[in-house]
TrEMBL record:
<dbReference type="InterPro" id="IPR008280">
    <property type="entry name" value="Tub_FtsZ_C"/>
</dbReference>
<dbReference type="GO" id="GO:0005874">
    <property type="term" value="C:microtubule"/>
</dbReference>
<keyword id="KW-0342">GTP-binding</keyword>
<dbReference type="GO" id="GO:0005200">
    <property type="term" value="F:structural constituent of cytoskeleton"/>
</dbReference>
<dbReference type="GO" id="GO:0005525">
    <property type="term" value="F:GTP binding"/>
</dbReference>
<dbReference type="GO" id="GO:0005737">
    <property type="term" value="C:cytoplasm"/>
</dbReference>
<dbReference type="InterPro" id="IPR036525">
    <property type="entry name" value="Tubulin/FtsZ_GTPase_sf"/>
</dbReference>
<dbReference type="GO" id="GO:0007017">
    <property type="term" value="P:microtubule-based process"/>
</dbReference>
<keyword id="KW-0493">Microtubule</keyword>
<dbReference type="InterPro" id="IPR000217">
    <property type="entry name" value="Tubulin"/>
</dbReference>
<dbReference type="InterPro" id="IPR002967">
    <property type="entry name" value="Delta_tubulin"/>
</dbReference>
<protein>
    <submittedName>
        <fullName>Tubulin delta chain isoform X3</fullName>
    </submittedName>
</protein>
<dbReference type="InterPro" id="IPR023123">
    <property type="entry name" value="Tubulin_C"/>
</dbReference>
<keyword id="KW-0547">Nucleotide-binding</keyword>
<keyword id="KW-0963">Cytoplasm</keyword>
<comment type="similarity">
    <text>Belongs to the tubulin family.</text>
</comment>
């Protein structure tokens, strides 16, 4: 986005843009004259098939400066190709896409099933929702997101993938696509956070500031156990 000095305002604008790309109105399954009345409920219904897996991530393209936008054109094929690769390579933005990552061949284990000590490559999904906004939205081909190799073995792609559409453009983009994913995207950062928190807890850092308000050490231990179970569950996707 060519931002020289990133401010909290810039960060908030990116967050607002991503949330807006998801929660702005879209058509319901009833047709192109009815908008969704409960998008958050629909989101949970489509993406959280099991109570043990409730972590969702958002990716959105395109996202660029207004100066760059004036010289850019977009096609649904190009946007969706990039968005799919962002998903499977766990890239947060287009600039971070690793084009070498490919879905595993049928019957072979993914890197996502291996130890956290090894680098994650392929990002296994439980469920994905693609939200398309803009011109010629009904011509977009979404077959690549229905590939069984993208998903855990215990959920069929017909149940794991959903799409919402509207021909109304979002922001200043003639065409835009958002992806809300329940996948292994969080495993590495969450494991890092838990590891640092464990080290602080073991050294009793700041514990007294919590205990004087009634929070016990057992509460911390319960929280660590809960988060470690979340990490383990997502690591084991596909078994």
């Amino acid at each position: 986005m060519n931002i020289k000095q990133i401010s909290f305002r810039d960060i908030n604008q990116v967050l607002a843009h991503q949330l807006g790309s998801v929660f702005q109105p879209t058509y319901s399954g009833e047709g192109s004259f009815h908008y969704r009345r409960n998008p958050l409920g629909d989101l949970m219904e489509n993406l959280v098939p099991h109570p043990e897996f409730k972590m969702l991530g958002v990716r959105n393209i395109p996202q660029m400066s207004e100066n760059s936008l004036a010289y850019s054109t977009f096609t649904w094929a190009g946007l969706l190709k990039h968005l799919r690769q962002m998903l499977i390579s766990n890239a947060k933005m287009e600039e971070g896409i690793d084009w070498q990552v490919r879905p595993p061949l049928s019957g072979l284990p993914t890197r996502g099933k291996m130890s956290l000590n090894k680098e994650f490559h392929f990002n296994t999904s439980i469920a994905n929702l693609v939200i398309l906004r803009g011109k010629d939205v009904h011509s977009a081909e979404l077959g690549a997101f229905k590939d069984p190799a993208l998903y855990t073995s215990w959920l069929e792609p017909v149940h794991a993938f959903s799409v919402w559409k509207t021909q109304r453009a979002f922001s200043k983009y003639e065409k835009s696509a958002a992806l809300v994913s329940n996948s292994q995207f969080l495993v590495k950062p969450l494991d890092t956070i838990v590891g640092k928190a464990w080290n602080m807890f073991a050294s009793k850092a700041y514990i007294h500031q919590y205990t004087k308000f009634g929070i016990e050490e057992e509460d911390f231990l319960d929280s660590f156990t809960l988060l470690e179970q979340v990490i383990a569950s997502y690591c084991n996707l596909g078994f």
